[in-house]
Amino acid sequence: MRIKLNGEYSETAAGTIAHLLRELETPSVGVAVALNGQVVRKAEHDTAVLNENDEIELIRAVQGG
Amino acid sequence: MSNSLKIAGREYSSRLWVGTGKGVAYPLMRECLDASGAEIVTVAIRRIPTDEKPGEMLVDYLKGLTLLPNTALCYNAKDAILTAQLAREALETDLVKLEVIGDEKTLFPDNEGLLEAARVLVKDGFTVLPYCIDDPIICRKLEDAGCAAVMPLAAPIGSGLGIRNATNLQIIIERANVPVIVDAGVGTASDAAIAMELGADAVLLQSAIYGAREPVKMAHAMRHAIEAGRLAYEAGRIPRKLYATASSPLQGVVGT
């Protein structure tokens, strides 16, 4: 299935946000996900279903002023 | 010691807020932060590159500090709002240093976008600390919108030009009912001291420390400048006069 991950089209077999984060080996703390412009809380990662062409933002804190 | 600063119901003894140093090695960054005495430090929010290897996390080097995520380089309210909401989820904080930038060359804030984002985020339960232009009117509007502080710039971000408009800052400080944090443009210790002598509640800086030849030493200097400036403000400076007033007794001078 094709999704748009952090602005780039990408293929995934993941059916949920939780599955996608496992696939990407994303750290379990200090990160956040938005699905089609809405933040998905950590407690909802298991139930947040991915669909074709979904837009996902995956972020963490970096150095900055 | 000077009085403490209250932000979002919490008291802070340090009035120096510091960035986390774009591209600076984590151990040096932490050494600078410790030398500065800062309790509130800013971080940026960025996409995780898909090829990023799991490594040391920035947040592991920021233990014991209050993290203030920013929305740096967001050019519209929508992006800034989503960035703030993502930051809240990732860092478990309602604090946000709200930036909506209007121009790449100056990095000056976009007043309309800033105000729009501030209103949405205040309603969404954030403690909004907006980076804004040194204009008393936008500061008043941001305060009316429910912002917990205003953060007028001293000069463009990273410019090191120091306090460009002391009288505007003074008007903002006199009229604001929320803390005023002078943000951006500080180049050296005296700039930070001047901001504090004007009555700013805190100063936020980054480049002046990490860009110095000896960053840890500059972090020390900034800590002292902030403390000295604040103490001088609380003590109250003497009025400026054009002519001299003798500082030794006029009577009993030897000779004729």
Fraction of helical residues of chain A: 10-25%
What is the element string of chain A, with H for helices and E for strands? EEHEEE
As laid out across the biggest beta sheet of chain B, the strand order is 5-4-3-10-9
By helix and strand content of chain A, what is the structural category?
mainly beta
Q: What general form of chain B does the structure show?
A: globular
Spatially, the strands of the biggest sheet of chain A line up as 2-1-5-3-4
- Overall structural class of chain B, as computed from helix and strand content, comes to alpha/beta
What does this structure look like?
Chain A is mainly beta. Helix content of chain A is about 10%, strand content about 40%. Chain A has one helix at about 15-25, and strands spanning about 1-5, 10, 30-35, 40, 55-65. In chain A, a hairpin with a 2-residue loop joins β1 (about 1-5) and β2. The longest helix of chain A is centred in the first third of the chain and has 7 residues, at about 15-25. The relative contact order of chain A is 0.31. With about 260 residues, chain B is of the alpha/beta class. Chain B has a 5-stranded parallel sheet. In chain B, strands 6-7-8 form a 3-stranded parallel sheet. Chain B has a two-stranded antiparallel ribbon with strand order 1-2. The mean pLDDT of chain B is about 95. The interface between A and B is medium-sized, with 28 and 39 residues.
What key phrases describe this protein's structure?
heterodimer, A: 65 residues, 5-stranded mixed beta sheet, 1 helix, B: 256 residues, alpha/beta, 5-stranded parallel beta sheet, 3-stranded parallel beta sheet, 10 strands
Could you give a short description of this structure?
Chain A has 65 residues and is mostly beta strands. Chain A has one helix at 17-23, and strands spanning 2-5, 8-11, 31-35, 38-40, 55-63. The longest helix of chain A has 7 residues, at 17-23.
Give the secondary structure arrangement, pairings included.
The complex is a heterodimer of chains A (65) and B (256).
Chain A: E1 2-5, E2 8-11, H1 17-23, E3 31-35, E4 38-40, E5 55-63
Parallel strand pairs in A: 1-5
Antiparallel strand pairs in A: 1-2, 3-4, 3-5
Chain B: E1 5-7, E2 10-12, E3 16-19, H1 26-36, E4 40-47, E5 66-69, H2 77-91, E6 95-98, H3 111-123, E7 127-132, H4 136-144, E8 151-152, H5 166-175, E9 181-183, H6 189-197, E10 202-205, H7 207-210, H8 215-235
Parallel strand pairs in B: 3-4, 3-10, 4-5, 6-7, 7-8, 9-10
Antiparallel strand pairs in B: 1-2
